[in-house]
Structures are given as C-alpha cells and as structure tokens.
Amino acid sequence: MQVTSQSQFEAAERDAVPPLERITDGLYSLGVEFPGVKPHATLCYLLQVGNDIHIIDPGWDSDQNWQRLVSSLETIGGRPNQIRSVTVTHLHPDHLGMAQRVRDETNALVAVHPAEQRALKELSAPQPKQLVLERFKNWGVPDSKVQDLLSAFERRSNWRGIDADLLLEDGENLPIKSLGISALHLPGHTTGHLGLVDAKRGYLFTGDHLLPNQFSGIGLGGSSDNNPIEDYLQSLDRMLEFDEFEALPGHGYRFKGISERTNQVRSHHLERAREVSNQLGETSVWKIAEKLSWTDGWQNLSGLALLSALSQTELHVDRLRSLT
C-alpha cells in the first residue's frame, strides 16, 4: 500500500487535523475536527467545477469547523454561496453533521443513499432505556460497565437527522455537471453507506468502508435484511475492480493499493470470525469478546469503542450460528 499524501499521513500519525490540500485541478481535501474521539479528524472533499462547489462529507458540525470550511473556500477562490450540493457517504455525525448547516446557509442539495435515509429515521426514534438495559444484560455486561455503555449508547443514538433532497441509488451520478462521479452502494459499516467513483480521474471516495490505518466498525447504523458482516464482506469484493484508483478515504490519508488493503481488511475480519468460532461455547457475548484480540486491548476499551466491540461480537456470533 502506497501513501499518496504525506501531509495527511503525518497528521494521522500525530492524530492531528490535516490542512487543506490540493489533490488535482478542482479537487481538494480538508481536514475537519472530530472533537473528543480518535481519530481526531475526518476528511472532507471540495470539488470546484467552474463557479460551482460541491462537498463530500462536510464533517462534524461546529462553529470552528464551519469557519474552517469558509476559510478553505476563500483559499481556493470560492464562497459559501457557490456550494451547490453536499453528498454524504453515511449517517455518522462526523460525516453528516454539518450538512444541515451548509444547506441552511447556502440552499445546497443534500444527497444520501435511500437506505441511509431510512436508517436516519429509524435511529432518530427514541428507544426505551429498559430495552437497551435488557440488551446489555443479554450480552452479560458486568454491572460496573453498564453506565459507561448506556452513556455511549445515548450519545450514539443522538443522531441529527436530515431529510435529503436527493436519494442516490447504486450507479447513479452525483448532481455535478461534467464529472460523472457515480454512487457505489457499500453496505456494512452502515446499511446505506456510499462509495463514490470518479472514473474519469481515477479516484475512489471510500468513506469509512475502506480506511488505510483502521479497521472499520460494522453494523453501526440502520437495520439490514442480511447480517451486516456478510454485507461488509460482499461490499469488499466490489473494491477489487478499483485497484488502479487512488483511494480518498473518510479518515487517515490518501493511498494506492486498494486490493492490497482490501485483502488485509478481509483477513482481519475472517480472523475475528475464527476467534469468535473458537469461543462459541462461552455463555455470553461479553465472555466471548473479552477473549478476542482487539487492536487497543480489551482492557482499554470503553464508551463507544466498547459498545462497538460488543455489537460486532454479537454479529459474528449470529453469522457463525446461521452458517452451521
């Protein structure tokens, strides 16, 4: 795998927010702060076509990030009133968060996949606390960890919904004249996650589906008819046809070697499945999860990271049992 942005790579190594960077004519990346969470930044992309500006993943909503966006537009010779569209790869607030503010300020169109629009409505509905606690009990969560997980769940459930102006199906073009960038449905991380294919210039915007320095969480937004792990593994298959493209991810840094990274990610999840399979005799999701190999170490997981680990362990258990 080849790093294609040294400045983004160095920022990722420091867990810092990368600067505005020109990728090619009319295409820029902008680091957007994601406070209180690692990684500390997401990557927003600005496309300049004549007098029009289009945004991919505006990032976390804050006054500071809005000013960062406005300043970056000025640097490339643009203004907020030139923004025509905002395309969001998925519903997480570090990607979707500022879309509403941009639309309020500029009347830009907001585009998502139809499944993501359904998921936003689903996740914005309140969930009774008792049902959440019952799920933790079924997982075998120790009493000492319940409050931490409950706080994480409430934070994750605090979705800022949006009614998109445009629903992008797989293969449909973004509302950007002349570029022909198309939507690529990649369910798994969330049920309506989109990649974006810039075939003319050889770029693949991967959102959080494929990252250079992290293994994306799975099943983190919206219900699916399939097991999200199965969805994710099938979505990885679609990456292999884009090996000659440069990957423009939602976190980390730009890179080449999409097939190599795809195979690394696949191996990681298949190894996780093997680990879970070896622990299926345990009595609870918690007991299984604590015996798995986690990048940060099981004992260091808390909050959203712990909630995600338990949720994904449950998904692996369900998938393996469905295969037997």
Topology:
Blueprint: E1 2-3, H1 6-14, E2 21-24, E3 27-33, E4 41-49, E5 52-56, H2 63-75, E6 83-87, H3 93-96, H4 99-106, E7 109-112, H5 114-124, H6 129-139, H7 143-156, E8 166-167, E9 182-185, E10 194-198, E11 203-207, H8 228-239, E12 246-249, E13 255-256, H9 258-278, H10 285-289, H11 303-323
Parallel strand pairs: 5-6, 6-7, 7-8, 11-12
Antiparallel strand pairs: 1-13, 2-3, 3-4, 4-5, 9-10, 10-11, 12-13
Helix pairs in contact: 7-11, 8-9, 9-11
Please, could you describe this protein's structure?
With 324 residues, this protein is an alpha/beta fold. It has one domain: Metallo-beta-lactamase, Chain A (4-Layer Sandwich), CATH 3.60.15.10. Helices cover 40% and strands 18% of the residues. The protein has 11 helices and 13 strands. The protein has helices at residues 6-14, 63-75, 93-96, 99-106, 114-124, 129-139, 143-156, 228-239, 258-278, 285-289, 303-323, and strands spanning 2-3, 21-24, 27-33, 41-49, 52-56, 83-87, 109-112, 166-167, 182-185, 194-198, 203-207, 246-249, 255-256. Helix 7 crosses helix 11 (303-323), helix 8 (228-239) runs antiparallel to helix 9 and helix 9 (258-278) crosses helix 11 (303-323). The longest helix is centred in the last third of the chain and has 21 residues, at 258-278. It is globular. The model has no long low-confidence stretch (mean pLDDT 93).
